[in-house]
């Protein structure tokens, strides 16, 4: 069974949800353990001071102290996750400008294409922003101030394309790439992916940004991050293949998307310059290719995108039918 049809996508989503749920539960357990250890240390220290001062406190006071430690730990944890998501979204918007204020040639053509594809997919026309970089980029993201996990379909995500993308691709190829991004919006992939990403970000919050681990909690955080990225990738790879198929149907030209993918792959940087886990973050996991800035992750179990050869083979199969 190909996992890009409705049943297959549901299977991927269920598997990803199971993995992500286990990771989130593990991360919360670690936070609770940290709170308990911190409470024990504080209680022991405070008890010694009170004993020295000949002061005795009832057990209910210590229960309240432990509960307060737990609430503070969970509050810090939730805030750290929210800040991480907003930072990622803000990074995606860096240097971008609205299409109408950009320096791209004939922006009206891009605007018209997106509007036409939005009508075909029956979704509100998404805003378009342009990054001036020469590196070809195309991805869909939320605004930095949008709710972390949306519970409605009121707000439309933003499509970000780069100057290099518009200059590299032909009109039909650009239309195919934009159709791929509109397919993500039509399927509500971004909202679903954000839910799957929260456990990954939660696990990463437990680990240091750099250097070696210093305690068992950080070791557990690294293992949970590894597992969470697998859950994200299981979900994302199926959505990418489904978006490829939808884009081919929208444009009626599977070959255009295939040639666009080949061009983008040829121009993308090859050497990875960052930790692989960074490539599963909110914007990059729904990019046309697994590329963000000058970073390029390798393929494998934790890759957020299917191998290029697989995508090209399926698009050519559609063109042959």
Provide the descriptors you would attach to this structure in a database record.
321 residues; mainly alpha; four-stranded mixed beta sheet; 5% strand; elongated
Helix content: 55-70%
- Structure annotation, total helices: 9
Mean pLDDT: 81
Largest sheet: 4 strands, mixed
What fraction of residues sit in β-strands?
under 5%
Number of domains: 1
Q: Which structural class do the helices and strands define?
A: mainly alpha
* Strands, count: 4
Q: Tell me the series of helices and strands, N- to C-terminal.
A: HHEHEEEHHHHHH
How would you sum up the global shape? elongated
Spatial sequence of strands, sheet with the most strands: 1-2-4-3
Question: Gist?
Answer:
The chain is mostly helical and 321 residues long. It has helices spanning 6-52, 59-93, 107-121, 163-168, 171-186, 189-205, 216-251, 254-267, 308-320; strands at 97-98, 128-131, 138-141, 158-162. Helix 5 (171-186) packs across helix 8.
């Amino acid at each position: 069974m190909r996992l890009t049809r409705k049943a297959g996508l549901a299977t991927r989503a269920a598997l990803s949800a199971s993995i992500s749920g286990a990771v989130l539960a593990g991360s919360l357990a670690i936070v609770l353990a940290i709170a308990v250890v911190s409470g024990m240390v504080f209680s022991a220290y405070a008890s010694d001071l009170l004993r020295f001062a000949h002061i005795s406190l009832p057990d209910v006071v210590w229960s309240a102290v432990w509960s307060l430690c737990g609430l503070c730990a969970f509050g810090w944890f939730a805030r750290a996750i929210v800040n991480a998501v907003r930072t990622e979204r803000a990074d995606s918007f860096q240097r971008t400008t609205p299409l109408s204020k950009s320096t791209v040639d004939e922006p009206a053509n891009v605007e018209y294409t997106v509007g036409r594809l939005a009508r075909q997919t029956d979704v509100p026309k998404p805003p378009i922003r342009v990054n001036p970089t020469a590196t070809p980029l195309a991805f869909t993201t939320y605004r930095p101030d949008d709710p972390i996990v949306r519970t409605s379909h009121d707000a439309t995500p933003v499509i970000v394309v780069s100057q290099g993308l518009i200059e590299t691709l032909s009109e039909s190829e650009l239309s195919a790439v934009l159709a791929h991004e509109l397919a993500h919006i039509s399927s509500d992939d971004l909202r679903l992916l954000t839910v799957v990403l929260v456990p990954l970000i939660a696990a990463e919050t437990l680990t240091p940004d750099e250097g070696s681990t210093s305690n068992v909690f950080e070791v557990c955080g690294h293992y949970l991050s590894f597992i969470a990225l697998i859950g994200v990738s299981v979900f994302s790879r199926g959505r990418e293949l489904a978006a490829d198929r939808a884009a081919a149907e929208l444009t009626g030209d599977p070959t255009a998307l295939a040639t666009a993918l080949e061009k983008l792959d040829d121009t993308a940087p090859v050497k990875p310059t960052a930790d692989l886990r960074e490539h599963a973050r909110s914007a990059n996991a729904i990019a046309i290719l697994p590329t963000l800035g000058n970073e390029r992750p390798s393929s494998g179990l934790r890759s957020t995108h299917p191998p290029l050869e697989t995508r090209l083979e399926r698009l050519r199969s559609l063109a042959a039918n």
